[in-house]
């Protein structure tokens, strides 16, 4: 296919040489891409023939609609087929990508819900190239499934292919759930976004981290209406050697075990300013062990923390929601 979308002839009799990148004997794609009623063959770069209908492709892609409206050459097939004279469109994409594109066009083969992140990464450039905008719109919500596990990759894809502010912001928010070291691990998707887009993500993380850390300095202010009833505030330290108080700048006093928990949470917020980590049992396990040394706090600590931590995480989520992320449209990357 040339730059104008014209079908190019691969007839080797005109130049005496074959395309060395193509296998000598192309293979046929499975159902539903082997129809005897097809009127065109898409041949992938790894030599698989997809017998399809022009009308179906044209309906899904203005690119193909334009291409099929132009005069085309044909390649006479030497294979035994039901349609030996079909025009052949050489595709630069491999069969995996072509299948992904055609599954969207053909309802009988649509399995997009089963696509992995790598599948989507492979098919998005081709979907943009062939102006299959409806496929892009369909795939974009699927990327939300990968925000929790691959937020940086999803952020890069959202920027690279202009997949909308909602997905971009969701990916940036999911990025807060992971150690900041993830940002300095090379992933291929980073090669396709600008340094400015990457810097905006890091700046967003930094500002969220700062504001969340502040909550663990003023964690008692307005968060818990029953603060005075919590064991870490009520405990009579004078008769409990293992549960001494620690004073804070505003004269509020809490037990050392609770203060230590807040310090650990504040340090955690430097790396992952996300509410998800602070309510995990692994985060509060040490505090519960220390509280258990006190006959007053021991029986009460777990119950009080189960009430307090959701209030704290709600405040964290509220603080993060106030932090803006600038999403600047960039030119579509190839």
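-> sequence recovered:
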């Amino acid at each position: 296919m040339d730059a104008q979308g014209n079908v190019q002839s691969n007839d080797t009799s005109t130049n005496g040489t074959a395309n060395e990148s193509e296998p000598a004997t192309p293979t046929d794609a499975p159902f539903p891409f082997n129809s005897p009623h097809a009127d065109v063959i898409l041949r992938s770069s790894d030599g698989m023939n997809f017998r399809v209908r022009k009308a179906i492709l044209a309906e899904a892609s203005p690119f193909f609609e334009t291409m099929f409206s132009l005069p085309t050459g044909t390649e006479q097939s030497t294979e035994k087929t039901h349609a030996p004279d079909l025009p052949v469109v050489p595709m630069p994409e491999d069969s995996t990508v072509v299948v992904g594109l055609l599954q969207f066009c053909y309802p009988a083969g649509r399995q997009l819900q089963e696509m992995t992140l790598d599948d989507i990464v492979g098919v998005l450039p081709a979907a943009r190239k062939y102006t299959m905008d409806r496929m892009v719109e369909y795939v974009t919500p699927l990327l939300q499934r990968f925000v929790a596990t691959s937020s940086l990759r999803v952020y890069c894809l959202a920027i690279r292919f202009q997949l909308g502010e909602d997905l971009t912001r969701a990916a940036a928010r999911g990025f807060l759930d992971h150690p900041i070291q993830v940002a300095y691990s090379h992933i291929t998707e980073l090669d396709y976004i600008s340094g400015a887009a990457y810097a905006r993500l890091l700046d967003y993380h930094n500002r969220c981290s700062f504001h969340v850390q502040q909550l663990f300095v003023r964690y008692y202010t307005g968060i818990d209406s029953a603060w005075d009833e919590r064991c870490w505030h009520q405990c009579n330290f004078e008769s409990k050697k293992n549960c001494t108080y620690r004073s804070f700048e505003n004269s509020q006093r809490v037990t050392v075990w609770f203060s230590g928990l807040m310090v650990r949470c504040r340090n955690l917020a430097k790396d992952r300013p996300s509410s998800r980590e602070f309510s995990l049992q692994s985060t509060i396990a040490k505090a519960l062990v220390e509280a258990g040394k006190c006959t007053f706090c021991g029986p009460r600590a777990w119950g009080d923390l189960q009430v307090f931590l959701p209030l704290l995480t709600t405040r964290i989520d509220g603080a993060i929601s106030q932090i803006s992320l600038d999403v600047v449209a960039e030119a579509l990357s190839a």
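The longest helix spans residues 298-321.
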